[in-house]
């Protein structure tokens, strides 16, 4: 079979998925695919691709990728050059193992292409600003660039601005986030708000407003333009929000059987929460140690009994919810409850 093979290989070419005609205008960063096929195999030793620009010298190209996995019957070639405006001529030679060459008598396949645009070689820029409402005690509202290592003292909003000189590839945007001590996870698109207009693809805004426990965090942003220029930014910050106690009350109040739940909201988790119950004249009746002390809304039950196990009588009582942090500071709030059997 081999000795009688007189058929040259089949030659096909695609530029960005379309089979072009010679003389076509192609983009400055084309995806060029060539496929050579022969029943007896392509002898890749004899494959050459040469390129000439604007009548200059014909130069051999080597920066293409040849794929011969699965044998030599089908040989795909991937070539993704960066081209500048001008006229390009590509000369391709190839033959099978019997010496049958593509390109007829000339022995060469010639394609002429025109490039009219300048390639985009500049990756997008990534900027992050951090804003805070300044709601806490003695806090100023913040709106400034996020500097690596910044310590934030309240829950913050991160505004990421992407800018490109030509067009962003929205689908390439990735926001990884997490504790510096853990593997970063990509955020789901539903975790942040993105503003991107395909009609004005040079800009995109992303707003991320997480509600976080105190800790050290890392933001890792990846963006790309439509020419596959990639930009990456990694930045860390520390959240050190005050432990604040709010929404302190008890339900039911008054209580008819003496049993009630103390509820309270903690902005961050303290080390411990203690609840002390007093008579109206200030006598301490009961201390609830290790009360619920998590970030968010907490609920701690009281059975209506004093330290000796006696049920407390009808009347008005005061209670104090005390949150202590590891650094020794404490916050507390006082409430009033009634037992009415
Ligand atoms: Ca052949
Ligand atoms: Ca660009």
From TrEMBL:
<protein>
    <recommendedName>
        <fullName>FlgD/Vpr Ig-like domain-containing protein</fullName>
    </recommendedName>
</protein>
<dbReference type="InterPro" id="IPR026444">
    <property type="entry name" value="Secre_tail"/>
</dbReference>
<dbReference type="InterPro" id="IPR025965">
    <property type="entry name" value="FlgD/Vpr_Ig-like"/>
</dbReference>
<feature type="domain" description="FlgD/Vpr Ig-like">
    <location>
        <begin position="261"/>
        <end position="325"/>
    </location>
</feature>
<dbReference type="Pfam" id="PF13860">
    <property type="entry name" value="FlgD_ig"/>
</dbReference>
């Amino acid at each position: 079979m081999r000795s009688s093979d007189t058929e040259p290989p089949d030659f096909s070419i695609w530029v960005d998925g379309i089979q072009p005609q010679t003389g076509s205008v192609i983009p400055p960063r084309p995806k060029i695919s060539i496929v050579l096929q022969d029943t007896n195999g392509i002898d890749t030793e004899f494959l050459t691709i040469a390129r000439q620009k604007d009548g200059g010298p014909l130069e051999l190209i080597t920066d293409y990728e040849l794929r011969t996995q699965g044998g030599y019957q089908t040989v795909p070639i991937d070539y993704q050059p960066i081209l500048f405006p001008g006229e390009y001529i590509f000369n391709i030679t190839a033959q099978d193992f019997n010496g049958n060459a593509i390109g007829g008598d000339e022995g060469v396949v010639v394609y002429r292409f025109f490039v009219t645009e300048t390639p985009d070689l500049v990756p997008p820029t990534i900027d992050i600003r951090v804003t805070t409402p300044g709601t806490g005690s003695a806090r100023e509202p913040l709106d400034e660039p996020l500097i690596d290592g910044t310590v934030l003292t309240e829950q913050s909003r991160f505004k990421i601005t992407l800018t490109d000189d030509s067009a962003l590839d929205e689908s390439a945007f990735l926001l990884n986030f997490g504790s510096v001590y853990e593997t970063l996870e990509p955020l789901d698109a539903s975790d942040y708000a993105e503003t991107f207009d395909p009609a004005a693809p040079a800009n995109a805004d992303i707003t991320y407003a997480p509600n976080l426990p105190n800790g050290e965090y890392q933001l890792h942003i990846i963006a790309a333009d439509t020419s596959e220029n990639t930009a990456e930014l990694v930045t860390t910050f520390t959240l050190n929000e005050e432990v604040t106690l709010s929404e302190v009350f008890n339900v039911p109040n008054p209580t008819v059987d003496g049993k009630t739940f103390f509820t309270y909201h903690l902005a961050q988790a303290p080390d411990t929460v203690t609840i002390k119950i007093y008579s109206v004249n200030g006598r301490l009746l009961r201390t609830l140690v290790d009360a619920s002390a998590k970030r968010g809304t907490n609920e701690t039950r009281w059975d209506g009994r004093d330290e000796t196990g006696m049920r407390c009588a009808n009347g008005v009582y005061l209670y104090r919810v005390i949150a202590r942090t590891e650094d020794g500071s404490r916050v507390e709030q006082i409430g009033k409850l009634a037992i009415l059997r």
